[in-house]
Every structure is written in C-alpha cells, then in structure tokens.
Recover the amino acids of this structure.
C-alpha cells in the first residue's frame, strides 16, 4: 500500500492510497470548505441516555448534483474545482466538507440538558476515480486495498485522543439518502463509543467472560455447522444471512477467526474478506438485475487502547427493500419500540442469495 | 365513553367506541383473516441483545388499495366485505389481520439462537368512519375519546398476562410506509418491555432514585421555564420541541404532571392533552400547506402491575422531512452507530412551529 498525504489549502487532510507508487508532485485539490460556521455540538438525550449531534449547516450540503458537477471527480481545472486532484492513485480519503463531528468543534451552546462540542472526525472515502463504477465491480486487489485503507484510517483516527470508536460505512442508493453517486463511503470517528457498538461490545464481553471465546466466533461456527444461511465460505472469511437478521436480505461478512480491528487482519484474512465482500456485492446486484441499495457498516472494537480479545470485526448490510418493488419502512415498532419486525425468514433470503451465481 | 364488543366470525375481537350510546344490534363485519399460516416467532439477536420478530406471511398484506377497496370503510355489503360494520360509532379497534405478535403464536422453529413464540397483540385503531379525515381534523371531544380508547386498550391488553408493554402509535404518510390512507393507528402489546421503552424506564428509575421526582416532569419544568421551544402550553398539558430532539420538527406532548398510563389520566389532563394534540397536528399540516407525515408514538410505563411513580406518559413525533422537500434519511450514523445527527436546531424548528397560527 502506497500513501501520499496532502493538506488542502483550507486545512483539511487528503490522503491518497494506491497499489502502485504515487507521484510525489500530486498537489492538493482546490475545492474549499466553508471557512466558518462549522461548529457542531452534542446534547444529551436524558430519556434514551444517548448523545444527539447538531450540525445545522449541513442543510446546505451538496444534493445529487448533475454529472458535470461531481465534486469527487478528479479535476485540475481551477474553474471547476473538486475534492480530488488528477493523478495515478486508487483511493482517496479526505475530511468531509460538512462534518457532523470535527476536531474544530468548540463552545457548545448552553441548554437545559448537558452539551459538549461535537469533537471527532468525519471522513469521505472515494473508492475509485471512476464515477460510474461500484465497489463490487472493482478488482479484488483494489477491494483488498480498501480494507487496508479502512484499517489505516482506524489507526490514524484512534491516534487522535478524542476518538473512542471508528465506523467505516457506505450508504448506497437514493433509497438510503445518497447525495452523490460517485462510489464512496464514509468514516466516522466518534468521541464516545456510540450506543449500538457499546451494546455489541457489552454482549461480547459477557460471553467472553463466561466462555473465554468471542461471541461472534461461536455464532459463525454455528452458522458454518448449520450451513443453510451461508452465502460465501472461504478458508478465512464467511458471508451469511444471520439467523437473527433484522432486515430482509441482511448479510454479515466476517473473518472466521476473531480480529478486533481492520488493522489487525492478517493478509490472508484480508484477501479472503475481499473475496467475500465482492461475492456479496455481485450477488446483490445480480439478484434483481439492478444496483442493489444498502447500508454497509463495519463494526470494530472500541479504540480505547485496551486489548479486545472478545471483539470480532464484521460488516453488516441493511438493504432497504423487502421485495423487488417494496421498501421496508422502519416505523412504529422499529423506531419507537426498538423491536424489529422482519417480513422475511433468513433461511428464505439466504436461499435466494445462494442461488445467484457470480463469477470473477 | 360507550363500548360495544363483538367477536368476528374468524374469532378476532372488534370493539366499537362512541361518545353516544351504541345500538346493540350492530353485527360483526365480514372480512376474514387468513385461517392459517399466522404463526410469528421471535429470535434472540445475540450481539444487540434484543428480540427480532419474524412474520413472513405479512409480505402479502394489503398495500395502498384503490379507494373503492378500503378495508376500513364501514360496509354492510357481503360482496364487498370490510373490517368495519355500518352503524353509529366513532372509533373502532380490532385485531390486525396480519399481526407481527399474536396470542395464537406457537411452536417456534429451532434455530442456532434462542427462539420463542411471538406472543402478544397487534390491534388496528380506526380513528373515524370518514376515509378522507385526519386525526387533527377531528373535534376535540372525538380526540379526547381516542385518548380514552388508548387507555382502555392499555388496560385490556395489560390484563392479558403475556403483555409487558403497550405502545399506541400512528404511521402517517406514504413517506413512513403507510399502506392504507383511512385515518388509523396501531397498538402493539409486547410480551417483553422492548429495548427503547426499557432504556427510557431505566433512566427514569435512576433519576427518581436520586431526586424522588419523575425525570420528564423535571425536564418539562425546565422547558416551561425556558419557554423558547414550547409549542402549546395549557394548565395540564404541554407540547414542545425537546432540547434533545433527534429528528427535525420532532415534537413531544405530555401532561405537565407525571402519569404512568393513558388510563391513569384525570379528565382535565385528558381534555388538555387533546387540545395539545390537535394544536400540534394542525400546526404540522399548516406548516407546508399539505398533510404532514410523521410517526407518533405514545410511551407509557411497563404493564407489570408494579407502581411506576418515575414514569411519565408522553407522545413523541418523528417527522421524516428535514426541509419542505428533503427527507431525513436514517443512515450510517443513526442506524449503525445509534448516534443521531440532526441538521436542524430544536430552537429553530420550534420557532417555525410557534409562528404557525391555528384556531379551533
């Protein structure tokens, strides 16, 4: 992995990654963030017991611009500035122009509830220079590079002392609110362990305390023994519709053997994870012969410098469709109660996805 | 409140409610539920530590039928059977034809995770016989009746021993997945306290233990003292954009003095809550001069027969729009991490809603 770090004229970080050496003369890109008004804050929700982030300036962010105004397309034209410079590289990571969390946050407003600056990091990860591409369409070694990039970003962000948790994710498709179609994802570096990863880690710690084994590793062994819901099985990685899927067509991807962080993966694990990821993405797109929208999130251990033998890195996919033409809406029971109602059986969606053949 | 209970030919319960005496000769309606295949189950999600409900037969449920085929329109025509009989009544409650939870659930499948029958109740509440109406358009005493009905259903469902929590809610608008436009809501009676109400109750118990006062009652006193976010203020009820709002245009409605259940409200509290509810609904619809979509949920105390002096009944509204023409999508940080990012400030949306004048 080759890395080239650049500081943009507005002070934001830009890091280029490549499978090949990167020319050192690639300069910064020219699109600038608003110079003021970026000052998000957090407020404490006393009844749910969780933080809420307020970033009112995000209302003005870029929303489905026409193709000739793609801020993620590399540009060397000062009349048409974008986020990325031209040059030979594979993946670019830079600070979000409209961050929900930023190290620059300061002086939160007083309120009747506890407030604090919304410290942290919001990064954009552009997967490829090709605006028409897709993550699943990239070559295996490009996807492997992305797994390395996510690992590197996790290390870089956890070195910043405010960051307690690093979440790489991709929102794909207008159905999940994507504002730009150029293949990209995001990374949030949180100043706390957010509620969902905290609950996951609590359950992992409890199981490890009882059994001495990582919880998800035991569950994966059970999925492999059962077999019916497995979508991809390699020597080091697995993709499966979990027996406890909350969304129709939900899929999880994980190394078979627990690892706490993307940066902790051995090369053979990373290689097989890339194969599992590409398999799932191609199956999704082939299922209904069209780009399949989803939210993909990579769960890791908290970045608190403590060992996490209980933690098992994995990706979860939440697709918004429950059938080819019907969306699954999150409504009363999901959003208000927190009990998900799944109108499909994991065994049935797994059968569908298993039957989709992909070759690469 | 007048009540008339009927058993449908397929065994489902139907209860009619009215401000006036109900003729005893109103018969059952004729639409029947599928006679078999209704057998939902729950599976334990080991990482999140919560139950997930599986009800695969719900894929076939009614989806935006044309107006001439409205299953909630009263009908006495056996060639066009619907859920409701004709006659003079205001509100009807009946068992959902396609329940996610039902007392008939039995023999859950074996799985690699813990399973159990999805016991419980799913009821439909038809707010009015008028298919073109809306909750906010109903007369105040009709809305008061609805608050009484929700209270009565809470008592009836909590008398069933499997029900640990009763949640009345309304999904309004195609944006939140509504499948039928006739004004109606739902009530879920859960066989456990679901994750969100459990967290709320945990925080309420902690605050009560420290201060001897209900948490939300203290927060409401602070909102009233602050004033800026208050949308409606009566002698017994309040509507406000909470300082900790997660959604743009989120509004809460509550009695000023804590009460654990809708059935525990005194008549003057119920009367003022109806006025607060009507005010909020009319402001919502007038804001952008069109029906305003939302999820409305009424949080109560767990129905475990224990006293709940810490608990404070209230409604929360989650609107799907962040501006007049932009939806707020729940994506990476909300769904995967559980940290909500709100692109509006509660003070700003409260100002907008306060400036909308409504008269009734």
């Amino acid at each position: 992995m080759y890395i080239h770090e650049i500081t943009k004229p507005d002070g934001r970080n830009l890091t280029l990654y490549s499978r090949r050496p990167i020319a050192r003369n690639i300069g910064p890109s020219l699109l600038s963030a608003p110079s003021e008004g970026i000052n998000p804050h957090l407020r404490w929700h006393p009844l749910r017991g969780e933080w809420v982030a307020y970033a009112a300036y995000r209302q003005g962010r870029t929303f489905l611009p026409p193709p000739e105004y793609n801020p993620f397309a590399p540009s060397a034209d000062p009349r048409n500035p974008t986020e990325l410079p031209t040059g030979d590289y594979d993946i670019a990571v830079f600070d979000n122009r409209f961050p929900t969390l930023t190290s620059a946050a300061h002086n939160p407003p007083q309120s009747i509830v506890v407030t604090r600056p919304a410290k942290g990091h919001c990064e954009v990860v552009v997967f490829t220079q090709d605006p028409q591409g897709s993550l699943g369409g990239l070559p295996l070694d490009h996807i492997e590079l992305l797994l390395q990039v996510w690992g590197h970003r996790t290390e870089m962000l956890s070195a910043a002392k405010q960051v307690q948790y690093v979440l790489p994710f991709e929102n794909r498709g207008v159905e999940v609110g994507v504002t730009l179609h150029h293949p990209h994802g995001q990374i949030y570096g949180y100043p706390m362990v957010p509620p969902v990863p905290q609950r996951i880690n609590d359950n992992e710690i409890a199981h490890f305390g009882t059994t001495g084994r990582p919880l998800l590793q035991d569950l994966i062994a059970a999925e492999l023994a059962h077999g019916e819901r497995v979508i991809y099985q390699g020597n080091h990685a697995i993709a499966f519709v979990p027996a406890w899927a909350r969304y129709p067509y939900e899929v999880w991807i994980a190394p078979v053997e627990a690892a706490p962080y993307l940066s902790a993966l051995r090369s053979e694990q990373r290689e097989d994870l890339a194969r599992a990821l590409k398999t799932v993405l191609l199956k999704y797109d082939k299922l209904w012969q069209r780009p399949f929208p989803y939210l993909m999130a990579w769960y890791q251990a908290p970045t608190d410098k403590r060992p996490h033998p209980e933690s098992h890195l994995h990706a979860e996919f939440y697709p918004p469709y429950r059938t080819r033409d019907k969306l699954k809406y999150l409504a009363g029971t999901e959003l208000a109660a927190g009990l998900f109602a799944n109108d499909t059986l994991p065994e049935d969606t797994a059968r569908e996805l298993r039957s989709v053949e992909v070759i690469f």
